[in-house]
Amino acid sequence: MKIFRNRNFVKLFYAALFSQMGTTIGNMAFAFYLLDHFSHQPSYATIAELMYSLPTILVFFIVGVVADRFDRKKVAENCDWIRAALTVILFGSLFTNSIPLIFLVLFLRSAVTKFFFPAENSLVQGILNKDQYAQAAGLNQMLFSIFMVFGVGIGAAMYKTIGIHGAVAVDFVSFIISGLLIRSCQIPSSARLPNGRLEWKDVSIKSSFVDFKDGILYIIKNRLLASLIFGFFVFGFFNGAFAILPMFTMKYELSPTNYEWYASLFAISLGLGLLTGSGLGTLIASKFKPHQLMIFPIFLTSLLVFFLGFTDRISIFLIIVFIIGTCLGPINIAIGGWMPKIVHPKLMGRVSGWIDPLMMFAQSMTLGLIALLFPKIIEEIDLLYYGIAAIILLVSLFYAFTLPKLSEAFERKQRRLNHKNHKANANITSI
């Protein structure tokens, strides 16, 4: 591919690869470590997942500002150095067995990670031609899909072979390699500082909040857009539940002795399902309206999640997970293809800026509830699956009653605008 002739892109691509590796391996290894050493307190593994999602809520309003206003290369590089230093502290904290310190370091490391990818993605945009953006986006999506499919397996393999200390050491080396790759890039100032040089003292938190306020007001006024954004919020519930519940299911019900292996198979099944669903969704997207690609798959997902709690066979569990992933693919395509048609280009950034925080808020809330409920109040994991299934079912019913009407109203509005523009163009031509 021609894009790989760009040495800066190759270095940034591999920097993102090692950065993601450093994040994924340690996070998954820690989940297995906590379940092994504190099996009588499963809430620890849930709280660890919470440490990865909560930082988004705290830093989301300044992440974009930092990536746009400061030297993007230095931001991405310094993220790696800071995470490497935090990983050293994490390595030391393992010898003290201080759970609060471990959670604090995981929280800080996750917070720093939130700044890396916006800066790195912005650098990639600055060094490529416009016709290469799609290729770069596809390669990055493939990169994250690979880690989604194999991330749990890699973390489990590292934990079983070299232990938690070895997994943390791999994290450290990964961040160092990523930082060195970014430092070696020769990137022009126009890509690093597109808005000119800015100091911290010139950044106004108030202006950042104003931008996000404009975005949320725009969302609220557009009922169809608000409904789609609500879909991302629901995905947060799903992500939060499935970040930890399958691991609990394997550890405490289906396979206590080999739960690491089967937790890896869960991630592979879900990831392959997502890839399959995305392919099918792309093929049938032109034959169905976006709301049709959302309502039925969400309804089917609710039934499948219910059956996850009901089944006691690992093979059936993994098959159901694969089908769930296949259902999620068309939903992602429908929302992703619908959003650019609804949102004005000038407000796309501000609207998009609300998606990740809303998802992380829902994810954090779900993880917090699981930590509180299981196993002190709810002793059976099955009940948690039934609760998640009920929430998803309600969402599918909500969409079934609202989206068709909102979609029709939006299409009528678009037809009126197109007719008005066509008439205006005809008048100009006649003059």
How would you summarize the topology of this molecule?
Blueprint: H1 7-37, H2 43-69, H3 72-96, H4 99-127, H5 133-183, H6 189-192, H7 205-221, H8 223-254, H9 259-284, H10 290-310, H11 314-342, H12 348-352, H13 355-373, H14 381-430
Task: Describe what this molecule looks like in 3D.
- The chain has 2 domains: 201 residues, Up-down Bundle (Growth Hormone, Chain: A); 228 residues, Growth Hormone, Chain: A.
- The longest helix has 51 residues.
- The protein is an all-alpha fold.
- 42% of the residues are buried.
- The protein has 14 helices and no strands.
- Helix 1 packs antiparallel against helix 2, helix 2 runs parallel beside helix 4 and helix 3 runs antiparallel to helix 4.
- Helices cover 85% and strands 0% of the residues.
- The model has no long low-confidence stretch (mean pLDDT 79).
- Major sheet summary line: none
What is the correct CATH architecture of the largest domain? Answer: Up-down Bundle
Question: Total number of helical segments?
Answer: 14
**Number of self-contained structural domains:** 2
CATH topology of the largest domain: Growth Hormone, Chain: A
The average pLDDT score comes to 79
CATH class of the largest domain: Mainly Alpha
Shape designation: globular
Gap between N and C termini, in Å? 49 Å
The number of distinct β-strands equals 0
Order of helices and strands: HHHHHHHHHHHHHH
Q: Supply the CATH superfamily name of the largest domain.
A: MFS general substrate transporter like domains
Note poorly predicted spans: none
Computed CA radius of gyration, to the nearest angstrom: 23 Å
Strand content: under 5%
